[in-house]
Amino acid sequence: MDVASRWVRRFAGLIPPNSKVLDLACGGGRHARYAASLGHSVLAVDKDVSALSADPSQNIHCLSFDLELSDSASHAGWPLAPDQFGGIIVTNYLHRPLMPDLLSSLRAGGVLIYETFAQDNGLFGKPSSPDFLLLPGELLRLASSKPEFHVLAFEDGYVSDPKPAMVQRICLIRGPVGAPESRRLDSHQ
Predict the structure, then answer these.
(1) Taking the CA atoms of the chain, what radius of gyration do you get in angstroms?
(2) pLDDT digit of tens for each residue in the chain (189 aa)?
(3) How far apart are CA 161 and CA 164, in angstroms?
(4) Superfamily holding 6-183
């Protein structure tokens, strides 16, 4: 599917203009391409970026990196340095040990847009392992563990589109949150 998720489209307009954006576990690159279309420079990271590497866009840079084997900033090529991204997009991916590094990689005023599978998703298919499914409210607890983060929106429940699934989604800003427009909840689709 090449269309960016509704959750990402809803909040991507809040990413500060001309920001460096991280698309973590980018897969085929649908969110990297979407963020680039909004004028951002995008770092697309995944174990296999071959589906995106051939993209001629000059706003997308690919990094093949196994985040689950390298949970250390001392590792060469580690993409999650502190205070460097104005936006971070993560969908359909969960590796809990990355959350502290992910949050610290967001610069002040930056926006985290995260959407992944939740408990009971196994009723609808994969993933079904508890290792890859969030517990009720877990994403909210993980992502808002520090006072400098302002949660704009959080959802935890069933969706039928694009396919039946149990999901959790969050959008947050790393303070200061700025003008009221920086916290706009109206759809940006």
Answers:
(1) 15
(2) 589 999 999 999 999 999 999 999 999 999 999 999 999 999 999 998 888 876 666 799 998 888 777 555 555 567 788 999 999 999 999 988 888 889 999 999 999 999 999 999 989 999 999 889 999 999 999 877 778 899 999 999 999 988 999 999 999 999 866 666 666 777 555
(3) 6
(4) Vaccinia Virus protein VP39 (3.40.50.150)
